[in-house]
Amino acid sequence: MTNLESAFKQVSILVNDFKGNESKFLSPDYSEADVRKDFIDKFFFALGWDVYHNEQKNPYEQEVKIEKGVYVGKQQKRADYAFHLTPNFRDVKFYVEAKKPSRNLSNADDYFQSIRYGWNAGTQITFLTDFQEFHILDCRIKPDISSILNYKIKQYHYSDFLNEEKFSEVYWLLSREAVANNSLEKFAESLPKPKGKAILKGTHRGIYQSIDEAFLEELDEIRDSLAKAFKKANPHLESEPLTEMTQRMIDRLVFIRFLEDKQIEPDHYVSEFANSKSAWKDFKIASRKLDAKYNGVVFKKHSIDSDNFIEPDNKTFSLICEELAHLNSPYNFDIIPIHILGSIYERFLGKVVIATDKRVRIEEKPEVRKAGGVYYTPQYIVNYIVDNTVGKLIDSKTPKEISVMRFADISCGSGSFLITVFDRLLEYHRKWYQENPEHAKKDGCYSQDGKWVLSLKQKQKILTNNIYGVDLDHQAVEVTQLSLYLKLLEDETTATAQDTWVMFKEQLLPNLNNNIVCGNSLIGTDILNPTSILPFVKGEDERGVDELKLKPMNFEDVFPHIFKSSPLGGVEGAVGFDAIVGNPPYIPIESFSEDEKKYYQGKFPEFKRKYDSSVIFISRALSLLNKQGLLGYISSQTWETGENYSEFRKKIFSNFGCVEIINLPFNIFKDAYIDTGIFIFSKAKQKNYKYYSYSKKEKIDSIKLLQFELIDNSLIKEPDYKLVFSKYVSQVLRKFSSSDFISLGEITISTQGLSASRYKETTNLNDEWTLPFYNVTVKRYSFSIDSSYYVNLKKMNSLFLFYEAKEKILIRRIINRQDRLDAVYLNEAGVFKKDINPFILNNSDYNTKYILALINSKLFSWFYINSSSIAAKDDFRQTTLAELRKMPIRKIFQEQKSIHDKLVQLSDQMLESKKQIAKAKTESEKEYLEKKCSIIDKQIDQLVYELYGLTEEEIKIVETP
Questions:
Q1: DSSP character at residue 55
Q2: Tens of pLDDT, residues 738-760
Q3: To which H or E segment does residue 351 belong?
Q4: Cα maximum dimension of the chain
Q5: Is the pTM value of this prediction over 0.70?
Q6: Domain 379-411+519-725 carries which CATH code?
Q7: What pLDDT digit, counting tens, does each position of 342-367 carry?
Q8: Is 391 exposed, middle or buried (0-12, 13-18, 19+ CB in 10 A)?
Q9: Which phi-psi region, left, alpha or beta, contains residue 392 (left: φ > 0; alpha: ψ -120 to 50)?
Q10: The CATH fold of domain 735-959
Q11: What is the mean pLDDT of residues 766-770?
């Protein structure tokens, strides 16, 4: 019997039971709790879910979470059922809201409540049932109570489940095995997406917006309204204080709504402000009351609390509060994941308030404009990096051992990485105490519903002991603190908060000003030192450093307990952070001030010419780790292959260690095509590193079960410490790294073809600087000239000497569709277009046609594509002069002379045969000559394999498509 057949049989019994006693079950006396126990629990158990936790005993690792029904006003605090998939117990796959059968399910309140759960959590569909009926609801649309009944996708009556075909629809959507096979995602993708005016005219009257898009839009509107109201009442306000004031106001309103929805605070402050005739006065009183209880940056006295600050008009402020209040609001801060709030704030922080004498407007920050926007790191990337750094470091450790570990993000932004680090620490501690109950009570845990729960004091200690952050933006620091506070209070209740407040006489939020600080992670205070060896002076006596803008900072001054010998200083005997994670900014060097450029030149000499801030952050972060520390970044890929990063790669692989490289596709950041990768570095040297590369156009929404290549670090060596990206290449590369080989660049001179802007056409053929220009199409051993004319290279005499030489190998820049290099021999002077790379042999020990045979061989094409990160990951494969010059050429000693000569002979035969094909008059002649070329080609390949010493196994690797 299949799982479907078994489920159908079990559900059929439930349907017949309901049908046989329908009048009883439709009675108002038959409660929601009864129908859940008698029917809904059993229904999902039949679908393969461990509803009764027969297998998943650990309360922190259960796929089905069932709520008891705590109500806030007329609305329930959490959905009745939340379904997850192991091992991810953090993210909800779908919610089910239950009602008693006597209630008509098709009502706006129940629809709004159900859809609100799913929309705020980021699921795309949700379910409402009383067992008599089963409604599938659309969560892709911002909940709107006036049109919420139009959000229904489909409805079933319980009698439909006696029809196997109809039941199978539900089974293949909601059963455990179906959900594990992405049934919900596939179903959501199949739904029509309402667009534009059709939303208002059609079935769906809401707005198709994810929670983050909608709430960001709302925050933008609130900021705009507040800034204008503040400016109108206080005309003297300038841009920076106005930006700070609106930020603090929004932080307070969001935090208060969070406290309300979590039921940590029993009062609904925001709706009270909305209905008050003295809203601002009530807000100030509430702020002081909450500051006394909570502490932290959110309610700390600010200029908006000052008597000198003129309050905004009551109507504007009341209206903002009314829009944000809990009554019929689409936002439920008990459901919205904290990391989603972080993503909203990250983009929100990309804009500032600009105030002129009479006007206020909101603009993107200059650095955001230059970068093309704010690119928030997807949560699955954050999860992967944190799990493979912090997660690995704390694994198997006790809470006491973890208490002296330090984890940081030195460009923390809104705090998304630090929120996740804190979440992993809390998750690990909960699980550890559940598995070690003898330590739980002694360390401060309390028992609730059969599980050990961390007390607020324990979570405070974890936060202040383990979490550190730095950012140049003061607003970002404030938001990071706010986000961490939200995470700290996430599972608290009115009772637990009140216990801490009353019993311990302690404020609920710890001071994070020593943990999350505003400063420059890359620039120390030595930039201000007049005796510095670096010339940071504009004039003779005038300093050139804008200290308030740069905010120079020394880590040993800001975090002395981590960077100096101290009982608190990290792992025993270690100085520095145990892990640093994040997504550092990718600011090009051209955007830095002259002071910054000079400073970086002095402090980071491994960077020359063109580079961006992300690699400086990697260097800086590595210097801040302790001896066994790990660094996990999502960052630009450019350092992997660029010639200007060779010293940086040398520094990484000579002094530190690369643990893992994952080159990501283009779609990681919405509306931004950036070559990024996940990089895990170690302060300790490593023997190997793991490598994986996605294709550029691949679409991903998770990172799991990757088939890593394991690369030997010893292969990354001088002259440029170029990374190796394939274990197969590394296996063959060992053969090419001996003194028996020489690089192509050592025995040739080469250049790239000329772009049209670098030469001028001429008709003066008598000028000594005149050469023919050939618009040539290169193929393997053959070429065709599409057009030709003459150009004068008098202003480029060095290039003239190169092009004047006759015997050349022309290599096509674009790699052909068969993944082969295209090269041809040419014996005449001439200039070529930009897509041709000409090489001239300057070593008499080798014959040009020997080199031609090597370049056109299968081994060379395979080796180039697999050893070039650009060609390996690019869907439009190209060669570069720099990488071609490094290709290994087998030196010719006496024992190789016969193979060398044979390859020269076969090259001649191929060149001649290709010419004959072009002149062939009949198809039979052409077929004969093509077959001849194919045979010669194979002979060349076999000779090259022999010359390079490949084994049969290695030849198979090269030959396999």
A1: S
A2: 788 898 999 999 887 877 667 77
A3: strand 351-355
A4: 109
A5: yes
A6: 3.40.50
A7: 888 888 888 889 988 878 888 887 76
A8: buried
A9: alpha
A10: Adenine-n6-DNA-methyltransferase TaqI; Chain A, domain 2 (3.90.220)
A11: 80
